[in-house]
Amino acid sequence: MWKVYLDLKEYAAALANCRDALQRDQVYLVQAEAAFAAKEFLRAASFYAKINYVLSFEEISLKFISISEQDALRTFLLRKLDNLSKDEKCQITMISTWATELYLDKINRLLLEDDSALDSNNTEYQSLIKEFRAFLSDCKDVLDEATTMKLLESYGRVDELVFFASLKEQYEIVLHHYIQQGEAKKALQVLQKPNVSTELQYKFAPDLIMLDAYETVESWMTTKSLNPRKLIPAMMRYSSEPHAKNETHEVIKYLEYCVHRLQNEDPGVHNLLLSLYAKKEDENALLRFLECKFGKGQPGGPEFFYDPKYALRLCLKEKRMRACVHIYSMMSMHEEAVALALQVDPELAMAEADKVEDDEDLRKKLWLMIAKHVIEQEKGTKRENIRKAIAFLKETDGLLKIEDILPFFPDFALIDDFKEAICSSLEDYNEQIEKLKQEMNDATCGADNIRNDISALAQRYTVIDRDEECGVCRRKILNVGGDYRMTRGYMAVGPMAPFYVFPCGHAFHAQCLIAHVTRCTNQAQAEYILDLQKQLTLLCAESKNVSNGGLSEEPLVSVTPMHKIRSQLDDAVASDCPFCGDLMIQEISLPFIPPEEAEESESWEIKPHNHPSQRSLSLAV
């Protein structure tokens, strides 16, 4: 049936009645041959592109090549691309590449045929370029990158090469092109794209800043991922070029942004900014930068991030003397700071000398340097120089005296000129002498009072009532008991046991006091007291053995250590009254029932016992 319609040239009906692809190819072939015979080559190319089995791709291509119909061949290739499946990657790539070359050939032929093709009024050329770029956009994923770029380069289509490189994200090629053309803004727009590597920023920074410094710096300031240290080569290249006096230094602007806004701490960045400030005629910006403490507030960190030695060398080279004075002072080289400041401004030297506050000798030395300079530099008459020098003494707030600056005057200066200053100095010395005398008298009186107090302490005593009781055992202090007759380490007075009496009136037997303090104090102190008592007991035993041996007429060697240990024991147990001193205060925090008496306290606990025989009666209230 489809053949009947085909013979009648009713192609739509014939296609509708076809049962397989081979039959449809027959219909398309007849249509293509008819269009080809009628020299409708573009229409024929569309039909040929639909044929899959009857004719091969090569045969159809040769048909158009043999008659030099490049446009029809290109149309055939484009339609063929539309009919190919995605799995036929190799064929798609080859056909796309061939179509690319045909586009380029067509563009070149237009340029050769018409010199005015590049004009914007030439619609055929412009539409072809637009169509070609659309083709590149559609086929960017199937075209071989290297082959396509080589084709574009060989045909001299730089704009299309840049366009395709941008499609393939080969931004380095794009940037090279824009920089060669001097189009810095377009290059910076490419760099602002989110998928552009930051390394390209650093690579093209030297060229871009030389092309358009303002736009480049503005772009840097809006790009937060940049590391200013890697931009230093570009900034140094820009800074090496001469600039007009009133021209805004873009590198300084960017470095100030990094230091103040981004709080960059890189020493290289700070050193570069300092070097640019040093080269400016106005020194104020440099001084403000040196005085600014960028690291202040960071615990353990430096106050500044530039290298002070480098800054000093640079400022000396550029003859920025005020800056040098500041750096010397910052490095605690005050003598060098004052010496250099005297060459610039004596007032500056005085301010530097006043900065030294913790070293009086150094401060005086600095002021002497200033005084010598002031006296030697005065060019008036001698009497005027002397008056100015004496007036200078008043500015030192008494740090310098007239005798300190006298060596700086000539040997034959009249003393009349110094009369007032010398008299004032003598009066000051007289006041100091009187003050020292008063201090000596006060010290003598204090020493006498101390000696009297010591003598009074040696004769101090207290009266004990015969019924006075021991604060611990409650026995009378002055009674003789079997347990207290002899206490080792103490010398008993008559039949009485040794005892302690405190200024507050409390009295204790020695053994009772030792036992009480040992029980109430901490473990370490208790062990210390027991150890002293043990040593004292051993020394007493040795002393007794020696005396029984018949050597009592000679002085005992062990008496002195015994007295020493007894003194230590007295300090340990009798430094203050146990009932009125720190020991009693510490007992406030102790529990009423110590842990060792816990079982005893539990035995006193009242527990209810309910027996079956007992009945509980409720009482009505």
UniProtKB/TrEMBL annotation:
Residues 599-621 are annotated as: Disordered. Keywords: Coiled coil, Metal-binding, Zinc, Zinc-finger. CHCR repeats lie at residues 223-383. One of its GO terms (molecular function) is zinc ion binding. PROSITE patterns: CHCR. Residues 419-453 form a coiled coil. Residues 499-586 form the Pep3/Vps18 RING C-terminal domain. Residues 611-621 have a biased composition (Polar residues). One of its GO terms (biological process) is vesicle-mediated transport. PANTHER family: VACUOLAR PROTEIN SORTING-ASSOCIATED PROTEIN, VACUOLAR PROTEIN SORTING-ASSOCIATED PROTEIN 18 HOMOLOG. This is Vacuolar protein sorting-associated protein 18 homolog.
